[in-house]
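Case study 2.
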Amino acid sequence: MNQSMLNVLSIFQRYRVRPGQMLFIHNLESGPASAMAKLITDGLVVRDTPRNAYSLTPAGFQAVQGL
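Prediction:
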């Protein structure tokens, strides 16, 4: 996991997001946006229905706990 991915996961940690809870993240720059795409591909984060809403999967929550 690269630093950009860890930075994105730290946002979820900062707001104490648990699996299935939505977090709205706006204005992702190109680096963090590609990191978010990789987290989605790796099954750690899912994109939710409202625009800019994301949720942690149980695996993503475990990754956040390890930060």
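The chain has a mean pLDDT of 92.
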